[in-house]
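Readers outside the structure-tokenisation community will struggle with the description of the input data as it stands. What matters is that the chain and its backbone geometry are given together, residue for residue. For illustration, here is how one protein appears when written out as sequence plus structure tokens:

…
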Amino acid sequence: MFSSMSQSQEYRGFKQLMPGDEPGGLYILMLVSLFPLYYWCFTDESTEDEFEISFVCHRPDDLHILQEETEFSRKELQFLYRAFKNECPSGVVTEDVFKLIYSQFFPQGDSSIYAHYLFEAFDTNRNGCLSFKEFVAGLSLILRGSIYDRLNWAFNFYDLDKDGFITREEMMKIMKSIYALMGKYVYPSIHDETPSEHVENFFQKMDRNHDGLITVEEFMESCQKDANIMRSMRLFDSVF
């Protein structure tokens, strides 16, 4: 399913992107980091036309239900499921699959921690595996959701313990996972203080009441006032 040329081109572009001093840079990087999932889903060379599900162990919901619950058309769901079943014939995606995807796109770094955080953002029922329904629900929010949907998804991604707040510790973990993902291609070169600097810049912009916690309201308000973040939200508007 993976296109080696696409991987190479996207990796060369990605390795030049690292968070700047503004929170918008971190948000843009988070969005761009979803491109491996984009290629995983949308580079299927299969010529099948039917939504075949008879041989998998975990059958997805009826197609019309998924159409109602997501922003994807029937044809798009058929395409997505072909990609899904080709890589995961059992009908579920595990965290190991996410780690494999990211290790192939970022061979010079350690992508395992970032892939773990991303998997947890998709695994809404916390059972350690993704059904087709969970997977397309997450993709629908990211690719076709409203501004509110996309920002809310991003907030939940950063909120690692899902307690409704983003802490400095959580942002530090995210930052370190991003630098580990990029490996030796990080520019500028990483120093011990670099992740901390990014976290402090993030909190200076987002933490409106300076209590050391970022709420979803603070996050939403700050992001919607950031022109770079608003532009970045159109990255996936023309996937199909």
Remarks:
- Strands lie at 92-94, 129-131, 165-167, 213-215.
- The CA atoms of residues 28 and 231 lie 9 Å apart.
- The longest helix spans residues 168-182.
- The domain at 4-232 is CATH 1.10.238.10 (Recoverin; domain 1).
